Amino acid sequence: MTARAAGDRRLAYLLITPAAVLMALVTAYPIGYAFWLSLNKASLTEPDHTEFVGLSNYLTVLGDGYWWSALAVTLAITIVSVVLELVLGMAIALVMHRTIVGRGTVRTMVLLPYGVVTVVAAMSWYYAWTPGTGYLANLLPDGSAPLTQQIPALGIIVLAEVWKTTPFMALLLLAGLALVPDELLRAAQVDGAGAWTRLWRITIPLMKPAILVALLFRTLDAFRIFDNIYVLTKGASGTGSVSILGYDNLFKAFNLGTGSAISVLVFLCVALIAALFIKGFGASAPGAADEGR
Amino acid sequence: MRRAALAAVLVAVAPLAAACGSSVPADTVTAYVPGNDAAAIEAVAAGCSDGYRISVVRLPKDADGQRLQLARRLAGGDASVDVFTMDVTWTAEFADAGWAAPVPEDLAAALRTTTLGGPLKTATWRRDGDREPRPYAVPTWTNTQLLWYRSDLLRRYVKRGTAPRTWDQLLADNAEVARGVAAHNATLPRAQRIAVPSYIMVQGAQYEGLVVWFNSVLASAGGSVLDPADPTRVTLTDTPEHRAATVRALRVLKAVATAPGADPSLSNNTEDPARLGMERGQATFAVNWPYVYSSMRSNASTGTDENQQVPFFPEMRRFAGLFAEGAPAPSADQLARANRVLAKRFAFAPYPGVETALPARSTLGGMNLAVSTRSHKTDRAWRAVRCLTSAAAQRQYALKASQAPALAALYDDADLRSAFPMADLLRRQLGDEHAAPRPATPVYSTLSTMLAAKLHPVGAWDPEKLADELAEAARKALAGEGLVP
């Protein structure tokens, strides 16, 4: 390294120092504090009676059936909704990619659900599925109230999630589609590959980075699901996610210890999912691709 | 010279120091009140000025949101909170946390002679160091659920004008009405048939309202969740009698939820869906707070869109002008006329009991006002509380905002009686004999959440087994064990 380059590097570090310190304060402090709280018996109503209890809050959480059922519900919602979003998002992206007439209109229309505030959308789903006031509930046979039973309610939650975030998936996949060179597809066509073969053999392999980034983003997002459940069922009838469980223990029971332990566990799960995607499937964060080196 | 310089510095700095403390003038008392009731309190607060001014700050509309915001401010030692409203279930928690100051002795003595027994109990707690239970807040208004029913259907199909007194009778009457309507329908061409009003509207969603329902039925069966004399003892199953009462109450809940033709949405219903079910003509019976009365009256008169109309009540349309939006407040005479027509089809009765031998009890709601221990203006704050809960104030809350007063004497007020035809019934249910206070404990919120999770969905359990599960959940809540679902 030349002296000039070393000087540049020092200057670069100097320039990013304030931002790095600020980031550490803003993000590291709350995370560290939450971790510290999770090792204590602490309640909002007894600020002077905090007591160090080690990992006992984690044992409480992991030894409680409510945590495991919430985790199962969260995983089920995550897997089902992300798979549906991927398939639908891919279909929509292909349509958007190939649209010739009214391209702007089509894209705007597809993106509309993503523009609606989640809570507002969830409210309208709530009323739509409530017997009496709802146009969707009224289509069902008399006497059914889907939001009061676990499986139908979970189905509605997944539907609300898919409806809301498929456009986001489609948008990411559309960007991936733009990576596929037209010449390649045409050459394959000349070689006699049908539409299906071209999709499986050329488009999807070339889109792999975009697909994995889209999957990573949506999986992390879906795992943290809160708002749709909060509005649609408030976590009743066994539909609560781990985030709902954390919220209830922090802000209803005012139990800062176990509530923080749940938050830390959610954080670890999210980190695990991210690690799985990045190490296991080779998904790369934007800007970290090989060509940059 | 040096002294002059020091003085100059002090003069320059003094206003800054004062400004640092707070931007609120020293004579202003800040009251944090629920968003949806703020207008009524603001109207009263405007007239309160005895060496102070009240500035009203709006909290969220839902009780959980209010509790959370207050807890955050008070736990953080926020001195800007002088006066705050407390839901009736928070008294023990806020007093034990050291957030709510005990009511001064002279005011407490006055409350004991003027306020109804039930509401006063909701504001009373005994924290460590107290020789006996004492009020930690002043009841502002109160609330109690009644039985609402379709008097026309009862007269036609059960041949009786009076409401059932117990849940068993209610279920029998409801089945009778449903059978009657079905038989009547069979004689009609399809187009003229009416929906069978077979629903019993209750609060069955997994939330506080479900615990209220359970608590009322349990108290009417002679049981209780916690020992009122020792709130650290769970009394759901500790003796054979208590256990029998708990099981009896659970049987009632289950019977309502599984009655033939029961509301399919029962386990998702809160107060408002219950009110709407009654207004749409789907229900013969409902248990709900008194606000459903004025709602029924104005929606039946003026309802325009599908969700507001009261289809079974065309006679009320002639009062459309009286209850239209923006119309002047109706006179006592006009109200009385509207109420008489309303009574032809829609009526109220005491909350149903479990056994005729035991008094029926109904859970109390309402709002109390407390003074923060963090406040620097305690003296002014208590004066503000006195004004905001005075007889004149409670009368105004009743007439303008339909909130039932906690002061016994107001139930004899002529204007109030014309606005609340159920005044005598309310007073009766708010007294010690018929009021069912919720368990008083600093962990009420946890307790209620855990009970609601066990009780929900109503009827999908075995009463015998659930009684034990509820007792275990209550024990865990008191011990601070496990998670809150």
TrEMBL record, chain A:
Gene3D superfamilies: MetI-like. Pfam families: BPD_transp_1. The chain crosses the membrane at residues 12-36, 66-96, 108-127, 253-278. Keywords: Membrane, Transmembrane, Transmembrane helix, Transport. The keyword Lipid metabolism does not apply. It is found in: Cell membrane; Membrane. InterPro entries: MetI-like (IPR000515), MetI-like_sf (IPR035906), Sugar_ABC_transporter (IPR052730). GO terms for cellular component: plasma membrane. GO terms for biological process: transmembrane transport. The keyword Transmembrane helix applies. It is a multi-pass membrane protein. Residues 71-277 form the ABC transmembrane type-1 domain. It comes from the Bacteria. Belongs to the binding-protein-dependent transport system permease family. This is Putative sugar ABC transporter, permease protein SugA.
